[in-house]
Amino acid sequence: MSFLCSRSFCFLVLAGILFGIIFLAGCLSTSCEKDAHCQNWEYCDLSKKVCVPKEGMCNFDEDCKDPTRYCDQKTHLCRSKKGFCTIDADCENWQTCNIASGKCMPKAGYCDSNLACNQYQYCDNSTHRCKALPGYCFNHFDCQPHQLCDMDKNKCVPLPGRCDQDSDCPNYAWCNISKNICTPKPGFCENDLDCKNYQFCDSKLKRCLASPGFCDTDNDCPSTQVCNKKTNKCVNLQNKCGSNKECGWWQYCELSIGKCISKEGYCSSDFECSPWQSCEPNKHICVLKSGYCQSTADCKINQRCDLDMHSPNFHKCVQKPCKTDADCYNSYCDKLKEVCR
User: Fold this and answer.
1) Higher pLDDT, 103 or 9
2) What is the pLDDT of residues 95-121, one digit of tens each?
3) What angle (nearest 5°) sits at the alpha carbon of residue 115, between those of residues 113 and 118?
């Protein structure tokens, strides 16, 4: 099927095409008769009477004849598009030009994505250097002040006694997150400074125990002593002992019964003396009670010491018996009662 058009239609079409060519020619080029009619980066093509770019210069990207380059409208020089290059100067200062591919590549020690880094690193977009991810490291300086770098695992680990979480501490301690220090749990200790002044920190149990001679409970004391909760000291039970040094100077320790016994001729209480005696608290010897006698020598003149154990006046001074006044010294004899007066 052939296409036929009227004269008027064909004329209009041709006129439109001609107008378009003229319009484009006017937009793309400037008419000229000499170089002075053109920009300083152009010259006048006398055959076409239009200004065209000088050698090495451009007006449009097409003038560069390379899809990886564009025309810089300020300088009218062809530049490589971002990421493409012909020389190192076309790249960023952290890149070098790979001539074979015509692309900018990171210099040694630099990166353009995380893929260029190790698995424990990321690419810092501001420096284009590989940096350790949080918690990971390449050296000690990648870690926090309380950490060191485990070079085998490339991970930051706490220094001894320091921590990031409770699992970094011994079983008897937990992690003080604000200070990154392992702190003993209540009732446990790290050293003696965690204990009271009469206690010490047991290195195996990690608990505060009473020092020798001191106590928290009776179990901290020998069997012959109890714990004084006010002074936290072990004290002897009443008359209980384990050696002579635990007794008074007038006593000795009877180990078979664990008691302090008064030495012969000494006493600790009135119960160790005769009924007519009491125990002198300083000298610890039995002395006569007031009004009692050991012998007649302890009585006044004309008295005698009644040593009859059945008498109500046993070991008391009573008047001497008499028959006549001659039986009495400087006195007389009460003949009715037969005693000296």
Assistant:
1) 103
2) 999 988 888 899 999 999 999 998 889
3) 115
Tens of pLDDT, residues 66-99: 888 889 889 898 888 887 888 898 888 999 999 8
Taking the C-alpha atoms of residue 92 and residue 104, their distance in angstroms, rounded to an integer, is 8
DSSP 320: P
Is there a contact between 339 and 327 (Cβ–Cβ < 8 Å)?
A: no
The answer to whether 269 touches 284, Cβ cutoff 8 Å, is no
- Gap between the Cα atoms of 76 and 54, Å rounded: 10
Span 224-242, mean pLDDT? 83
Which conformational region is residue 181 in: left (phi greater than 0), alpha (psi within -120 to 50 degrees), or beta?
beta
SS3 track for 102-159: CEEEECCCCCCCHHHCCCCEEEECCCCEEEECCCECCCHHHCCCCEEEECCCCEEEEC
Mean of all residue pLDDT scores within the chain:
85
The rounded distance, in Å, linking the Cα atoms of 285 and 273 is 9
Burial of 152 (0-12, 13-18, 19+ CB in 10 A): exposed
DSSP state of 293: -
Kindly tell me if the per-residue pLDDT of 27 is higher than 50: no
- Return the amino acid letter for 129: R
How far is 83 from 78, CA to CA, in rounded Å? 15
Threshold 0.85, pTM exceeds? no
Nearby residues of 202 by Cβ (< 8 Å), 6 or more positions away: 208, 209
For the chain, the domains span 140-213, 291-340
Q: Which of 134, 173, 174 is nearest to 156 (CA)?
A: 134
- In the chain, count H helices and then E strands: 1, 24
Q: What are phi and psi of 125, to 5 degrees?
A: -70, -20
Q: What pairs with residue 226 in β-bridges?
A: 235
